[in-house]
Amino acid sequence: MILQGLEKLLKLDKSAIFIVACFLLISYEPVFSRQQAPRGDYPDRLYIENPRRNSVSFRFELVNNLIVIPVSINESDILHFIVDTGVNTTLVTELAIGDSLALKSVSDVRIRGLGEGEPLDAYHSTGNTLEFSGIRGENQEVYVLKEDVFELSTHMGMEINGIFGYNIFRDFIVEINYGRRRLTLHDPENYSYSWWKETFWNIKPITVVNNKPYVKTSVRTEGNNSIPVRLLIDTGASHSIWLDESSDPNISAPENSERTLLGAGLSGNVFGRKGRLKSLNFGDFEIENVIASYPDSASIAPAIQLDGRHGSLGADVLNRFNVIIDYQNEQITFRRNLRYFRPFRHDMSGMTLTAPMADFPVYMVSYVRPGSPADKAGIKEGDQITSVNGSTVSNYTLSEMQGIFKRGDGRLVRLEIMRDGERIQVSMRLEKFI
Questions:
Q1: 152-194 pLDDT, tens per residue?
Q2: Is-contact 94 80, C-beta < 8 A?
């Protein structure tokens, strides 16, 4: 739950609300019905606070391939938001102990997105002020989930309070330097592409539909078939690419793919299969051995019905490039960085780790894939991992812990786990399953 006692506060005043959190992705993609805003001046636009500047540049944190920046809403405490091209409004998913947030003009709504569950109850608020790194916007629309279904902090190992993105990409030309972890927002009216970028960078057209960017490209299967696809460009999804098998008869999971938990959606867990593509075409680049996810059709039906896409292009591909996303001119400009040469890795243990207390090294097993090395070793959901190969887990972040199980096919890993107050020693041999 985000909050207790919130309903009582709402009864007192439906036009304003003060929220105090009392208690303590992955792929996800909320779907909202909202018309695309026209370009130009409109009440909820974001702008650079210093009128003498045409751009603002600042560092971001890169966690599980996702861009995280500090944000303030109505002069709140600093909140941490994921910058996500896959959502078209600001969504608050959780608040930490002691955090407070004052919202204006609140009403009840129901929203849904990827996942197997039912639509969720949320609060819709308008007329808010949003600020971050020299950027300001009034009349901002904010949704607040009544229940924290994402558990983003738990999955990312640091405090994450929400996701947003559309207004940033609508109001600026957005340059993402994944190599240096730097985000630069350019005023579209005063920005021109340098001859260097026009000459030596790749440029591909995009279309912006229902506030989201799409690109046409192609994938090549193990059978060497080239399949044209239309993909959502999704900076808020940590995966490489997902493809919908029901969107095209030529799209199907490889024979050696495995069914597993793919991530958490707004309406529940997303299950499906994982396999490898022979290659993904992206401009002049033929990216080989890309890990592809094939969600169960029931989990992604709401998104597919809205826009007819074949899938989405996630941050595990995007972060191998420095990119400029330009909604105004409907194009994406990109150049590979050193991350381009990293192999696409997957978990070889078959278990999903979470950190129930953000920024604190306690790591729990939240899912075990049947038949996986973790399953064969007797590891169960709810087990707490206390050491890896004799080293205490306090030496590792959640991301580093996850990385341990992505390297060394056939390598023996020794774990100490805590279960019902008892310490248990287990060993498992990592296994590359795709």
A1: 898 899 999 999 999 999 999 999 999 999 999 999 999 999 9
A2: no
